[in-house]
Design a protein that fits this description.
Blueprint: E1 3-6, H1 8-15, H2 21-33, E2 37-41, H3 45-62, H4 69-84, E3 88-90, H5 105-113, E4 122-125, H6 129-134, E5 139-140, H7 142-147, H8 160-181, H9 188-201, E6 205-209, H10 212-222, E7 230-233, H11 240-247, E8 251-254, E9 277-281, H12 292-302, E10 305-309, E11 317-318, E12 321-322, E13 329-333, E14 347-351, H13 354-363, E15 368-370, E16 373-374, H14 385-395, H15 398-415, E17 429-430, H16 443-452
Helix pairs in contact: 1-2, 1-3, 3-4, 8-14, 9-14, 10-11, 10-13
């Protein structure tokens, strides 16, 4: 069990001293200690406010004191606000089914809301005996939870469910807007997203495309990379970096990495430059830019271009400039697991060069400068409108997410054992921590231990 959804009666127990309060509070505390995600359901808010107000009035009457309904309601809202600060809200969906034919629509809503979680990962905690009996697989009582031996829940690398719930109202509004206007290819959200990306990065041009891989292809096509040309890059990266160079019939020339950042060692680049070298392609691995001052100086000296593979680093910075505003062309990926991810494939290219921008805009739509007029050989590399709408919603809270990533990374660095070789961020750079990557000697054993504790790892 990874998620626990609180029924109304459990919330009331936790907020007001009642017969079952101690048991309910203890059950919530146990769930928190096991790192189980605790949720309140937005569809229950009005019921919670009303029932809590009634309980407040009842308690005052027992003390021979009177309180108005309005005052009780204000107290109930304040109490609920304080209580909910520690937990997440599960918002209701428009398609949770027709519950009005049910014997108990509110219980039906709660049960349907469990579909929002991966199968068999969530339960409703309740004191409602009828609900416990009716749906014993999806519910649990506080007493059973306290007696139950619960295994430690596993952690997801990228918990898209929780992230969705933070922005769900805005997300659903954006998606429904696209469904309403029906412009699924190059709809208005695409241009709006590009404007917002330009503001966020400081780059003059932001051009969205179908993936981070296609972003690299578009960059090389804009630079007119030819068969036999050499592009200097790192071997320590995802295959797309070198794969796209090979697709252009060019030659990837590998330079070793720095031992501390795992990025390309800029001091070794100049030694491999030949008369066929056309560009340098550093990779901002794990979320941190490479040593761009040195790389830029080498590029300027030898009249080379720079294409940044920033698939993992959108939102990072180097000496005050965003990773997307460095080099001649910078690229990124919006793959779902990336720091800023959509719910499918997506990517973008960034440049301050007007000529490159114009070419890439055409090349992502088969080289067209107007309908059925093809100035260049291009690709079908557009970002679809639904993904643009999703990214617009996610971009509104992305700076906050970056702050949260910094907090988690600092915690790991502070608390992890010093026998691990921990990642570092170089001076005057920031990382968006696409991954927190450590080096260990007994890797297999440590991976197995972490797996037993529900902690995911990858090599």
């Amino acid at each position: 069990m990874k998620h626990l959804l609180l029924d109304v009666n459990i919330v009331i127990d936790a907020c007001i001293e009642r017969e079952n309060s101690i048991e309910s509070i203890a059950a919530i505390a146990k769930a928190k200690s096991l790192n189980i995600n605790i949720w309140l359901y937005t569809g229950s808010v009005q019921t919670l406010e009303y029932v809590l107000a009634e309980e407040i009035i009842k308690q005052q009457n027992n003390k021979n004191q009177t309180i108005s309904k309005g005052t009780a309601l204000r107290e109930s809202r304040n109490t609920l606000k304080l209580f909910s600060e520690n937990f997440s809200w599960l918002s209701s969906l428009s398609n949770e089914g027709n519950v009005f034919t049910s014997e108990d629509p509110e219980d039906e809503q709660l049960l349907l809301s469990l579909d929002r979680f991966p199968k068999n990962t969530a339960k409703i905690i309740t004191n409602n005996k009828k609900l416990l009996k009716r749906s014993h697989k999806n519910t649990i009582s506080p007493k059973t939870l306290l007696q139950k031996e619960i295994s430690t829940p596993s952690i997801d690398f990228a918990n898209l469910h929780i992230q969705q719930d933070i922005i769900r109202p805005e997300l659903e509004k954006s998606i429904h807007s696209v469904l309403h206007h029906g412009k699924y290819i190059m709809g208005p959200e695409v241009a709006e997203l590009e404007d917002e990306l330009q503001k966020f990065t400081g780059a003059k041009h932001a051009i969205t495309c179908s993936s981070g891989t296609d972003a690299l292809l578009l960059a090389m096509m804009a630079m007119d990379i030819q068969p036999g040309d050499e592009i200097i890059t790192t071997p320590f990266t995802f295959i797309a970096t070198a794969e796209t160079i090979a697709l252009m019939k060019a030659k990837p020339v590998f330079v070793d990495i720095e031992e501390d950042t795992y990025n390309i060692d800029a001091t070794k680049i100049e030694a491999v430059i030949t008369d066929k070298t056309k560009a340098i392609m550093p990779v901002s691995l794990y979320g941190q830019p490479a040593d761009m001052d040195v790389i830029q100086a080498i590029a300027d000296k030898h009249k080379l271009k720079i294409i940044i593979d920033g698939a993992q680093s959108f939102g990072s910075s180097y000496k005050g400039k965003t990773d997307s505003n460095l080099g001649d062309i910078s690229t990124t990926s919006f793959f779902p697991a990336k720091p800023l991810g959509c719910y499918g494939d997506g990517g973008a290219v960034f440049t301050n060069n007007d000529q490159y921008a114009e070419k890439m805009r055409m090349m992502r739509v088969h080289g067209q400068n107007k309908r059925y007029h093809h100035k260049y050989i291009g690709i079908g590399g557009r970002l679809d409108t639904l993904q643009a709408a999703i990214l617009l919603s996610k971009l509104t809270c992305y700076e906050k997410e970056i702050e949260m990533r910094q907090k988690v990374a600092r915690s790991y660095t502070k608390d992890l054992d010093n026998s691990l070789i921990k990642p570092i961020t170089k001076e005057k750079r920031t990382s968006v921590w696409a991954q927190y990557t450590v080096r260990v000697k007994n890797r297999d054993q440590i991976q197995e231990k972490l797996k037993e504790s529900g902690i995911p790892t990858a090599v």
